[in-house]
Design a protein that fits this description.
Blueprint (H helix, E strand, L loop, with lengths): L2 H29 L4 H6 L14 H10 L1 H32 L3 H13 L8 H10 L5 H24 L4 H9 L4 H12 L1 H17 L2 H6 L8 H7 L9 H32 L5
């Protein structure tokens, strides 16, 4: 088989795989414009004059279930958590990479170890601690996300810092820069690819997360998108499928657009920190 034919076969295979991945999103979008009764009866058929309901499912999700308020809290939690994770973990990674000691090596190993600890081991203790420390608010959840998101972020930032020539920082120190000014004026701009990569990964995780907000937030006051969608299932088997489909579309669109516009930076950021200079 020639190289051209191999390329065509690979293209056909990846096209098919892409269609399989996109098809659930298309099915959800299609069913969001159907009447509730027909979503279960004809889930794979296109909306017709008989089944089409227009934007009523979207209006129902927004008005009846408080979807817009959940979007606001989700944006606040996501943006706040990502900013705190990026700032704190990048500074921490720079410190433990440049300061060679047994303590910094231990701290790095603890961060890496945190990535392999199952969440189920700490979830009940976490819920108890957050209630006693009154961290059951969006601002407290930002601190919790910092703890759970630090492992991956520190790992990626450390890999990138190792590729930065230390002579650049030494030159800044000679010119009179303090450590903080060296970091913010010299190191931080160089770390931009990894900042973008970590930001994308953390944003996608926090935006779609259900378990942490459900376990820690005071649900009588605060709700995220995932919690509101779960509430749409109702009780005693009652499920508002129309509102659920509409809410899923509204929840997926922002993160899909964000990912598609930034996906090229993920590979660039990971590759930038893959080789030690």
């Amino acid at each position: 088989m020639t190289k051209k034919k191999k390329g065509l076969v690979a293209t056909a295979i990846f096209t098919l795989v892409s269609i399989l991945y996109v098809s659930p999103l298309f099915i959800v979008l299609m069913n969001s414009f159907k009447k509730k009764a027909f979503i279960n009866l004809e889930p794979f058929s296109l909306p017709s004059e008989k089944t089409f309901i227009g934007p009523e499912n979207y209006l129902n999700a927004v008005d009846k279930y408080g979807f817009l308020q959940a979007v606001i809290w989700t944006v606040v939690i996501t943006v706040g958590s990502v900013l705190v994770i990026l700032l704190c973990t990048s500074m921490f990674a720079w410190y433990i990479t440049r300061v060679k000691s047994s303590t910094t090596k231990l701290l790095y190993l603890l961060c890496v170890f945190s990535m392999v600890v199952p969440f189920q081991m700490v979830m009940f203790t976490l819920s108890l601690v957050t209630d006693r420390l009154r961290l059951n608010t969006p601002w407290g959840l930002v601190i919790i996300y910092l703890g759970f998101g630090a492992g991956l972020a520190v790992f990626m930032f450390c890999g990138f810092v190792k590729s930065i020539p230390i002579e650049i920082e030494e030159a800044a120190m000679i010119d009179g820069c303090s450590p903080l000014r060296t970091f913010f004026s010299v190191v931080l701009p160089i770390m931009k690819p990894t900042y973008i990569s970590v930001g994308i990964l953390e944003t996608m995780w926090i935006w779609n997360d259900f378990l942490l907000p459900y376990l820690t937030l005071d649900l009588n006051k605060y709700s995220t998108i995932s919690i509101v969608i779960q509430r749409m299932q109702g009780s005693y088997g009652r499920v508002d499928m129309g509102a659920i489909m509409a809410a899923l579309v509204l929840a997926v669109i922002p993160i899909v657009v964000f990912y598609l516009s930034c996906q090229k930076y993920i590979i660039k950021g990971v590759a930038a920190g893959a080789v030690k200079g």
